[in-house]
Amino acid sequence: MTARTERVSAAAAIVRLAVGQIEGELTDDIDAEELAHVLREFYCETAPREGILGALRQLLTTAAHVAEPLEPDDDAETSCALHEAAVYVGDRTGTCLDAAAGGLGWQSTRSS
After folding, report:
1. Residue 79 and residue 4: Cα distance in Å, rounded?
2. In contact, 48 and 94? CB cutoff 8 Å
3. Residue range 29-42, pLDDT digits in tens
């Protein structure tokens, strides 16, 4: 293991601990308003880059850009898969979370 991979592993462990903390908060007595607020920490339509999913999307996009020059024969298989994952996390998952928060009574900023 290199120093870089050790640092990434340590950072990933911290993220897993944080996710475990959030999961623990969800299992405690929680009402609809609080749950909607927690979901907004994952994804907020008005500021999608600020939520947890926005950070994950940026991480995947960065990995895709790093992968591009490393791919053999310019096939872009790896970078395309990473870009697709980033879009899926940001758009599809975000839309689902927005709908879930709306179902709990959160006032969306989306104009209908």
Report:
1. 21
2. yes
3. 899 989 988 888 88
Q: Nearest-5° angle of CA 19, CA 24, CA 27?
A: 130
How far is residue 37's CA from residue 41's CA, in Å, rounded to a whole number?
7
**Residue 32 Rama label (left phi>0; alpha psi -120 to 50; beta):** alpha
Residue position matching structure tokens 């299992």: 27
* Distance, CA of 72 to CA of 69 (rounded, Å): 8
- Residue type for position 57: R
pLDDT 10s digits, 90-112: 788 888 888 888 888 766 544 43
Cα(82)–Cα(68) distance, rounded to whole angstroms? 10
Handedness of CA 16, 22, 25, 31 (dihedral sign): negative
